[in-house]
Design a protein that fits this description.
The protein has helices at 2-37, 41-51, 66-81, 125-128, 133-143, 150-159, 168-172, 191-196, 209-219, 238-253, 278-288, 298-301, 308-322, 348-365, 385-390, 402-412, 431-437, 443-480, and strands spanning 267-271, 292-296, 326-331, 371-377, 393-396, 416-418, 424-426. The relative contact order is 0.07. It is built from 18 helices and seven strands. It has three domains: 11-85 and 109-172, no CATH class; 201-396, Rossmann fold (3-Layer(aba) Sandwich), CATH 3.40.50.300; 402-480, Helicase, Ruva Protein, domain 3 (Orthogonal Bundle). Helix 1 (2-37) packs antiparallel against helix 2 (41-51), helix 9 (209-219) packs across helix 13 and helix 16 packs across helix 17. By secondary structure, it is of the alpha/beta class. The longest helix has 38 residues, at 443-480. The strands form two sheets. Strands 2-3-4-1-5 form a five-stranded parallel β-sheet. Helix 14 links the parallel strand 3 and strand 4 (371-377). Residues 107-124 have a biased composition (Polar residues). It catalyses: n ATP + n H2O + a microtubule = n ADP + n phosphate + (n+1) alpha/beta tubulin heterodimers. One of its GO terms (cellular component) is spindle pole.
């Protein structure tokens, strides 16, 4: 019973988050459509680049624009309160030169801040005209009822001529989030659609232009294209995939379970021989977890200018908190977090950058921000001991076992392939024998072996083509002589 209740709460939370993101995205699309309709082309171009949306891929529906929505809202407000809504107000100063700081919006819409059809507000009959007096009385009676049903609300709206009464449930979802009809969780959004329609937040407000430039540099490392690597695409590594889910996926899905001593890990290290799938696991995290994914390399946070490296590290973690839930992936982390020495052989700038990175990771452990650091290394013994302590969970990505090697051979050299002409090409391979004799091979080694095997018939084809070309060119050469 408790498990089903937790799953239901998780599904409801995910559904509300999806609805909120869809509202933000749809509103941005309507804004850009409105600006484009009135000739603000440069503004639309800049806005598309900042929010990662394109009117070429998605646009406003037919007969739907901001003016129509505003007109319907003014009509509804006038019917409900008997006066026009106040949409804008005058500012105190004559001219505003200060940059407005972005306000932090709540993740969910508060139903107390929105009007409700079940309120006890009264309508002024004189302001609506004598022709609608009877309709006003029916509206007051409907509003004074205890909890009106969806049907009664549709009748009230139909009496006042508001179109679209058949879809009144969808129209009232944003106004009555606690309606009697329970919301149906939307279908899971495909990863490709998620990345194409992901709404990117604008840069946070920084006082200095230098920090804004550094933030723009880090923002370019956010994954905006789908890596298209799923958990089932990774052969083997079942234990590693389970631990990564425990560290990244489940804390976001079941936050009530990860409290106290079970608080989620803030750092995870993937270590092992090269070519075993560490970077592939990171791509699966970017595809499946649907968090803001920062793909950081040494060139992203190392600068030749004094003081810029530690500033880049600080801005990186600030942006990760700003875009939370987020994941920071640092590949080959030993290149930037090697052992610190006291013999003076290490550069001062490198020590400052390492110290700043350790301080920022300590800040992650002391806060409840949904920011996760994922690191990969082939040389874990070269990492600084302080960094190893902050990477709480360390997972060995070992060489694939026999079952995993069997799956890899079947993926790279499938038993049956259909070419472009529709011909079915069948190959008889002993996959069990191939997996047995490839003991000690990494996933990358197996891919190279399969590639070399696939090149052999292609080489024979090239030899036949060259022989045919030589045979055709020989008579022409003799006649010329």
């Amino acid at each position: 019973m408790e498990v089903s209740k937790l799953r239901e709460q998780s599904d409801r939370r995910a559904a509300e988050e999806v609805k909120t993101e869809q509202r933000k995205r749809n509103l941005m699309i309507l804004i850009m459509h409105h600006l484009q309709s009135y000739g603000y082309v440069d503004t639309v171009t800049k806005l598309q680049a900042e929010c990662n949306l394109s009117l070429k891929k998605i646009t406003a529906a037919d007969n739907m624009d901001l003016l129509t929505i505003l007109q319907e809202y003014e009509t509804y407000f006038g019917i409900k309160f008997g006066k026009s809504p106040k949409l804008v107000k005058k500012c105190g100063g004559d001219e505003i030169t200060e940059v407005v700081k972005p306000k932090k919006r709540p993740s969910q819409i508060n139903s107390e801040d929105l009007p409700s059809y079940g309120s006890d507000s009264k309508v002024q009959p004189d302001s609506l005209g004598s022709k609608k007096k009877n309709e006003n009385m029916s509206l007051i009676a409907a509003q004074n009822s205890s909890v009106p049903s969806i049907k009664s609300n549709s009748e009230v709206i139909e009496n006042f001529g508001v179109t679209g009464t058949k879809n009144v449930t969808q129209r009232l979802e944003c106004i009555l989030p606690e309606a009697a009809v329970s919301p149906v969780p939307p279908a899971a959004e495909p990863s490709q659609t998620y990345y194409e329609s992901k709404l990117l937040k604008p840069l946070p407000h920084y006082e200095s232009s230098e920090l804004r430039e550094l933030a723009a540099t880090i923002t370019r490392d956010i994954y905006m294209e789908n890596p298209n690597v799923h958990w089932e695409d990774i052969a083997g590594l079942s234990s590693a995939k389970r631990l990564v889910r425990e560290a990244v996926v489940y804390p976001l899905r079941f936050p009530d379970l990860f409290t106290g001593i079970l608080s989620p890990w803030k750092g995870l290290l993937l270590y092992g021989p090269p070519g075993t799938g560490k970077t592939l696991l990171a791509k699966a995290v970017a595809t499946e977890c649907k968090t803001t994914f920062f793909n950081i390399s040494a060139s992203s946070i190392v600068s030749k200018w004094r003081g810029d490296s530690e500033k880049l590290v600080r801005v990186l973690f600030e942006l990760a908190r700003y875009h939370s839930p987020s994941t920071i992936f640092i590949d080959e982390i030993e290149a930037i977090m090697g052992h610190r020495t006291s013999d003076g052989a290490e550069h001062e700038g490198s020590r400052r950058m390492k110290t700043e990175l350790l301080i920022q990771m300590d800040g992650l452990a002391k806060t409840s921000d949904c920011v996760f650091l994922l690191a990969a290394s082939n040389l874990p013994w070269d990492l600084d001991v302080a960094m190893l302590r902050r990477l709480e969970k360390r997972i060995l990505i070992d060489l694939p076992d026999q079952d995993a090697r069997n799956s890899m051979f079947r993926i790279h050299l499938p038993p049956a392939v259909v070419d472009k002409a529709g011909n079915n090409l069948v190959a008889s391979l002993d996959y069990n024998n191939l997996a047995a004799i490839s003991d000690g091979y990494s996933g990358s080694d197996i891919q190279l072996v399969c590639k070399e095997a696939a090149m052999r018939p292609l080489r024979r084809l090239f030899e036949m083509i060259e022989l045919h070309d030589d045979a055709n060119s020989a008579p022409s050469g003799s006649s010329l002589s």
